[in-house]
Amino acid sequence: MRLSPAQIWRTRIPRYRLLGKECKKCGRRHYPPRPACPYCGSRELVEVELPRTGVIESFTVIYTVMEGFKDRAPLIIATVKLDDGTRVVAPITDAEPEDVRTGMRVEAVLRRIRDDGSYGLIGYGTAFRPTILVHKTS
Ligand SMILES: [Zn+2]
């Protein structure tokens, strides 16, 4: 019996957590984690678990995609403002471009983002999908 990569991932990590960094100097958070604070340049960072839900602040639809991403076209890339105010740029999944709206509530999910040719290496990354209840933030 072969396990799918998604099953293997679930076996390794019981619960998917969105881990970012919080700057001890200016207090701002960022994701994905970087070696230095993107706002003030400080390297005094602590790991924090970010909220997995937020709203779409802006988005763009990309119709021409690179090799390895073709099954994901069109690709919707959004700036998501998490519930703690942290902004994350990530793909939107489980939605058609015409369904995506600014202010739409989304939640973080783990998605296959890359299929790396003949070796079958599959990259996983954070994507966001609309939550079932859509709240307008007007
Ligand atoms: Zn900082």
Structural description of this entry:
The chain is built from one helix and eight strands. It is mainly beta and 138 residues long. The chain has one domain. The strands form two sheets. A five-stranded antiparallel sheet has the order 6-5-4-7-8, with no helix packed on it. A three-stranded antiparallel sheet has the order 2-1-3, with no helix packed on it. The protein is globular and about 40 Å long. The model has no long low-confidence stretch (mean pLDDT 80). The site of zinc ion has 8 residues, from loops.
From the structure above, extract its key features.
binds zinc ion, mainly beta, 6% helix, 138 residues, 8 strands, five-stranded antiparallel beta sheet
Summed up:
This protein is mainly beta. It has one helix at residues 5-12, and strands at 19-23, 29-30, 45-49, 53-62, 75-82, 87-92, 105-116, 121-130.
Sequence of secondary-structure elements: HEEEEEEEE
Structural domains: how many? 1
Q: What share of the residues does DSSP label as strand, in percent?
A: 35-45%
> N- to C-terminal separation?
50 Å
Counting DSSP E segments of at least 2 residues, the number of strands comes to 8
Strand order of the largest sheet: 6-5-4-7-8
The backbone outline, from C-alpha atoms, is: globular
Q: State the major sheet.
A: 5 strands, antiparallel
Q: Poorly predicted ranges (pLDDT <50, ≥5 residues)?
A: none
Number of helices: 1
- Helix/strand/pairing class, anyone? mainly beta
